[in-house]
Amino acid sequence: MTVRVSIKQRLLLWLLVPLLGLSVVFIGGTYAVERAAIEHYQDLRLRQIATGIPPRLKTADFRAINVKLFHGRDDFLLQVWTGDREIYRSTIDRGLPRFTQPGFGIRSIGGERWKVYLRHAGPYTIQVGQSLEERSALARERALHLVAPLILLFVVIALFTPLAVTAGLRTLHRISRELDARHIDRLNPLDPTGEPAEIQPLVQAINTLLNRLGRAAGAQQRFLADASHELRTPLAGLQLQVQMVEQAGSDAERRNGLEALKASVKRTGRLVEQLLATSRLDAEGSVASRGPITINTIVREALVRLDPLAQAKRIDIGLVHDDEAVVPGDGDELMLLVLNLIDNAIRYTPVGGQVDVALWRGNGTFDLTVEDSGPGIPQAERTRAFDRFFRGAGHTVAGSGLGLAIAKRIADRHAAAITLEDAASLGGLCVRVRFPQDRPSTRPQFADPEQNRLA
Ligand SMILES: Nc1ncnc2c1ncn2[C@@H]1O[C@H](COP(=O)(O)OP(=O)(O)OP(=O)(O)O)[C@@H](O)[C@H]1O
Ligand SMILES: [Mg+2]
């Protein structure tokens, strides 16, 4: 199951997590700095208190000094001794033992650690101590003062980010509504003016898609019109032939009529087959399977399937060069391509002619060539020969004009280039299909199904 994270959640996550991390670092850093500053400052105060007591003083005066020095905060422990007698203690219920070493020192008493400053002044021994825990508490207090504004910042971000996102996404909602409300025929582009910069690429992409859809729909309509037109002629012919058989005066006439009818039905069947192949290739987005296909096997099978046709015309047909050619692709589509090329070569070559099929391994490419000894295609017709329903003039061979268009479409889908040349040795046409070899650097990029569709 995929978890759907909304843009709002994503933004909040992206904002709050780094902010949280930064806050932790910031507060930790502040604590460390504060702790060092407090250490220094409080040491100064310990010494100040100890040195601030003059050598000759009455007991009562200590209390006044105490108030002055401690500023009401009970975080020091001041003790004064004369000889071994403790004469003053700033807090009645707390006291430290008297130390001997003058100056600063750290002492552990009852599990608590103290920073102590000791000074001998005339008859007095003055000792000022402060608990280290007290110092840490001070630093913590200062650092925690920063937390409150940070929490406020978090709340503001958490509240305002979703609002900002909602405002930003309003355009998207508007575009969705507009597209939703559209009739299937309205494929005019969206107006990108005034849309936010982030939305522009999306609007542009939708417009490109609408444009392609429009062109594809137009092509489909044209194809449907052409196909119906192409079907009308043979169907009218069939009708006529049926009438002729019905009205036949003799058995011989009827037999002839039926023969002609059979041939027409076969031709119409071929037309329907070619039409189906064309529309199937149009409908399929990309090459269905991309398994490694051995073209040699496909060519051999195609030669077997078309052998009766070649035999009927006494055409010498064969595979004259057989380098192994393996390409990624769809076996059925490649078979259709090979069948159409060899079918053309046999059909357009006069009786007793020759057809040579060959597979060549080139430098990073495989070439499939189908050469014949037929009339060839005049230079001026070669580009148009790949157009749907194009039929060359000047020959009587029956056909629908779809074979080369189908072959070209399949070649495109396999990143192969298809060209029409003069057959060097046989004198007729040479159709060359150049496949890239399946090496990482030359791996075929399967053609975008939308392009090339409008041949
Ligand atoms: N080997 C060839 N020799 C001479 N002309 C050819 C050859 N192959 C194709 N052509 C010419 O190109 C035209 C288009 O060929 P294409 O295969 O597309 O259609 P078709 O053969 O007429 O019909 P079908 O859809 O039944 O194949 C043909 O009508 C023919 O004029
Ligand atoms: Mg053909």
From TrEMBL:
<dbReference type="InterPro" id="IPR036097">
    <property type="entry name" value="HisK_dim/P_sf"/>
</dbReference>
<dbReference type="InterPro" id="IPR005467">
    <property type="entry name" value="His_kinase_dom"/>
</dbReference>
<keyword id="KW-0418">Kinase</keyword>
<dbReference type="Pfam" id="PF00512">
    <property type="entry name" value="HisKA"/>
</dbReference>
<dbReference type="InterPro" id="IPR004358">
    <property type="entry name" value="Sig_transdc_His_kin-like_C"/>
</dbReference>
<dbReference type="GO" id="GO:0000155">
    <property type="term" value="F:phosphorelay sensor kinase activity"/>
</dbReference>
<dbReference type="InterPro" id="IPR036890">
    <property type="entry name" value="HATPase_C_sf"/>
</dbReference>
<keyword id="KW-0902">Two-component regulatory system</keyword>
<keyword id="KW-0614">Plasmid</keyword>
<dbReference type="InterPro" id="IPR003661">
    <property type="entry name" value="HisK_dim/P_dom"/>
</dbReference>
<keyword id="KW-0812">Transmembrane</keyword>
<protein>
    <recommendedName>
        <fullName>histidine kinase</fullName>
        <ecNumber>2.7.13.3</ecNumber>
    </recommendedName>
</protein>
<dbReference type="GO" id="GO:0005886">
    <property type="term" value="C:plasma membrane"/>
</dbReference>
<dbReference type="InterPro" id="IPR050428">
    <property type="entry name" value="TCS_sensor_his_kinase"/>
</dbReference>
<keyword id="KW-0547">Nucleotide-binding</keyword>
<keyword id="KW-1133">Transmembrane helix</keyword>
<feature type="transmembrane region" description="Helical">
    <location>
        <begin position="12"/>
        <end position="33"/>
    </location>
</feature>
<keyword id="KW-0472">Membrane</keyword>
<keyword id="KW-0597">Phosphoprotein</keyword>
<dbReference type="InterPro" id="IPR003594">
    <property type="entry name" value="HATPase_dom"/>
</dbReference>
<feature type="domain" description="Histidine kinase">
    <location>
        <begin position="226"/>
        <end position="439"/>
    </location>
</feature>
<keyword id="KW-0808">Transferase</keyword>
<feature type="transmembrane region" description="Helical">
    <location>
        <begin position="146"/>
        <end position="169"/>
    </location>
</feature>
<dbReference type="GO" id="GO:0005524">
    <property type="term" value="F:ATP binding"/>
</dbReference>
<keyword id="KW-0067">ATP-binding</keyword>
<dbReference type="Pfam" id="PF02518">
    <property type="entry name" value="HATPase_c"/>
</dbReference>
